[in-house]
Amino acid sequence: MNNKQVILAQHQKFETERLFFRKVELADKEDLFEYASDPEVARYVSFPVHKDLAMTEESIVEYFIPQRLFCWAIVEKQSHKMIGTIDLRLNGDQAIFGWVLNRNFWGRGLMPEAAASLRDLAFNQLDVKIITAEHDAENPKSGRVMEKIGMRKTGQVYTYMAKEGRSVLCDYWALTKEEYLKAKN
């Protein structure tokens, strides 16, 4: 185990002004199903629309539980509802963002708040040198989140989306530690 994994293990739970972050649990299946079964939410992510709670339960067991160091449930403090997930995957000195949010909570600035907190963790405690992210080019709202946390668009690449059976044009974004520190000062 390396020092970065220890730091991530120490941050299994944390919070921001409006959000609480913790690990995804089987007890989250109803909240996760609420947005994973929404075709508008699933449209831009790699997982298929969830057809039933059993499918959601399987995704928690097969994906979220094994990825506990890198993936958090996003819980709205006011309602105590699990409203999405956010990933920060480490690859050496690079981190890769991923997120999904219940459509009922879009447009409230919650995802920039969540992403900014993990951006700060990555640069200030994990000593990451660059954070990258990608999104379907047809989903500009995700790009706005990236822009709001200081990332800049670096290009576009076609990616094969297995669930779609086709290639999808994706926008790629990045933020270096130098850019982050310069913007802070």
Report on the architecture of this protein.
The protein is an alpha+beta fold. It has a single domain, classed as Gcn5-related N-acetyltransferase (GNAT) (Aminopeptidase). The chain is built from seven helices and eight strands. It has an eight-stranded mixed beta sheet, with helices on both faces. Strand 4 and strand 5 form a beta hairpin. Helix 2 (29-36) crosses helix 4. The N and C termini lie far apart (33 Å).
Number of strands: 8
Structural class: alpha+beta
Ranges where pLDDT stays below 50 over 5 or more residues in a row are none
Strand order, sheet with most strands: 1-2-3-4-5-6-8-7
Number of helices: 7
Q: What would the principal axes of the Cα set say about the shape?
A: globular
Protein name: Acetyl transferase
Pfam family, one: Acetyltransf_3
GO molecular function: protein-N-terminal-alanine acetyltransferase activity
Domain N-acetyltransferase: 19-178
Quick recap:
The protein has helices at about 5-10, 30-35, 40, 55-65, 110-125, 140-150, 175-185, and strands spanning about 15, 20, 70-75, 80-90, 95-100, 130-135, 150-160, 165-175. It has about 180 residues and is of the alpha+beta class.
List keywords for this structure.
alpha+beta; Aminopeptidase; eight-stranded mixed β-sheet; 7 helices; globular; Acetyl transferase; Acyl_CoA_acyltransferase; transferase
